[in-house]
């Protein structure tokens, strides 16, 4: 099969013919229909992600059709499925308590095992997967495996966002834009923060109530002014100190900060304003991925027409275009995300 392989950090992925994946006994092999290019892929590409080593096939935001099923598989050949990026074992205490996204035995295609920048991908623990609703485009479905599911769990499973509350979103990339769209669907009022005016304008055109350009400074003060005292919930979607502190400092008393952005490299340990946490009686939540049992709540929201996630997708690219998309994450990115839909070139 054709695949894009990381051979050297910060260098173009190598387009190669590699062996087709072996089918796991408890899983399936998918013919990949679409795979998103995510900032988490970039962390591995630049060498910041501790688990991503040369030789890795990236890609963790994928959907596809089952072409082979193992003897203990949940699904069968022909099923169209979407995969979460965390594949939980299903039997450990974390999984049994409903917190599969914290499973200590998790499998991670795209980070530790071969991912979906390829024509086919093996998916163990296939009980984590979910059937794609009819009519949901593969390009949109691919984003459900990471950006959308992560945002959904951050808002509903961690911060318990309520209708009528103010939500601040710091960073309007894939996860941030997902959080904005989902927050509006839940009945919240949303203010978005970014340094790229084009991305702010894009978010406003999709329903954001207000926008703050962080290049102008005083982000927390601006959000507090717009919201009449501070956001009830604030999502940090970049994983850096400046936006983390702005997220914490823009909250009203008893507000909830959700750390969605991945802090790696120099940002793995950062100085944050704990006095603001103390004085405001704030709650800080970490979040990563989504327990797979929560797929029905998200998919039903999409199927009902309450939210349209298609504005997330800015461009469809061939496999050979993945390297350019990864390089683009070195600086401010344009609105929307890229999805690989052609794996032959």
Describe the structure.
The chain is of the alpha/beta class and 345 residues long. The chain has two domains: 2-148 and 290-342, Quinone Oxidoreductase, Chain A, domain 1; 150-286, NAD(P)-binding Rossmann-like Domain (Rossmann fold). Helix content is 27%, strand content 23%. The strands form three sheets. Strands 3, 4, 5, 6, 7, 14 and 15 form a seven-stranded mixed beta sheet that branches. A six-stranded parallel beta sheet has the order 10-9-8-11-12-13, sandwiched between helices. Strands 1-2 form a two-stranded antiparallel sheet. α3 (138-158) packs across α4. The radius of gyration is 19 Å and the shape is globular.
What CATH architecture label of the largest domain applies?
Answer: Alpha-Beta Complex
* Straight-line distance between termini: 12 Å
Can you tell me the number of structural domains? 2
Ranges with pLDDT <50 over ≥5 residues?
none
How would you state the average pLDDT, rounded? 96
According to CATH, what is the topology of the largest domain? Quinone Oxidoreductase, Chain A, domain 1
Largest sheet: 7 strands, mixed
The SSE string, one letter per element, is EEEHEEHEEHEHEHEHEHEHEHEHE
Q: What share of the residues does DSSP label as strand, in percent?
A: 15-25%
DSSP helix fraction: 25-40%
Structural class: alpha/beta
Summed up, the helix count is 10
Radius of gyration: 19 Å
What is the CATH class designation of the largest domain? Alpha Beta
- The CATH homologous superfamily of the largest domain: Medium-chain alcohol dehydrogenases, catalytic domain
Overall form: globular
Number of strands: 15
Protein name: Alcohol dehydrogenase
GO molecular function, one term: alcohol dehydrogenase (NAD+) activity
InterPro entries: ADH-like_C, ADH-like_N, ADH_Zn_CS, ER, GroES-like_sf, NAD(P)-bd_dom_sf, Zn_alcohol_dh
Domain Enoyl reductase (ER): 10-340
């Amino acid at each position: 099969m054709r695949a894009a392989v990381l051979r050297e950090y910060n260098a173009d992925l190598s387009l190669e013919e590699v062996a087709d994946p072996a089918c796991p006994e408890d899983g399936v092999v998918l013919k990949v229909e679409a795979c998103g290019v995510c900032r988490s892929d970039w962390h591995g590409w630049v060498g910041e992600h501790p688990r991503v080593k040369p030789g890795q096939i990236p890609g963790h935001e994928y959907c596809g059709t089952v072409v082979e099923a193992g003897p203990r598989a949940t699904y069968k050949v022909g099923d169209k499925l979407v995969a979460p990026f965390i594949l939980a074992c299903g039997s450990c205490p974390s999984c049994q308590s409903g917190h599969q996204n914290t499973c200590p035995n998790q499998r991670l295609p795209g980070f530790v095992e071969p991912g979906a920048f390829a024509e086919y991908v093996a998916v163990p623990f296939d009980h984590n997967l979910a059937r794609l609703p009819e009519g949901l485009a593969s390009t949109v479905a691919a984003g459900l495996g990471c950006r959308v599911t992560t945002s959904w769990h951050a808002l509903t499973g961690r911060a318990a966002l309520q209708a009528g509350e103010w939500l601040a979103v710091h960073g309007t990339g894939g996860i941030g834009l997902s959080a904005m769209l989902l927050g509006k669907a839940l009945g919240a009022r949303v203010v978005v923060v970014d340094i790229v005016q084009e991305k702010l304008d894009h978010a406003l055109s999709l329903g954001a109530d207000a926008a703050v350009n962080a290049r102008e400074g005083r982000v927390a003060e601006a959000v507090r002014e717009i919201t009449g005292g501070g956001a009830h919930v604030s999502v940090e979607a970049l994983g850096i100190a400046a936006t983390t502190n702005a997220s914490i400092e823009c909250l009203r008393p008893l507000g909830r900060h959700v750390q969605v952005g991945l802090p790696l490299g120099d940002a793995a340990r950062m100085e944050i304003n704990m006095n603001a946490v103390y004085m405001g009686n704030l709650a800080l939540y970490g979040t990563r991925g989504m327990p797979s049992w929560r797929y029905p709540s998200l998919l039903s929201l999409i199927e009902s027409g309450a939210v349209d996630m298609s504005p997330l997708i800015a461009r469809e690219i061939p496999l050979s275009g993945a390297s350019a998309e990864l390089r683009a994450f070195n600086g401010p990115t344009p609105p929307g995300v890229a999805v690989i839909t052609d794996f032959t070139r």
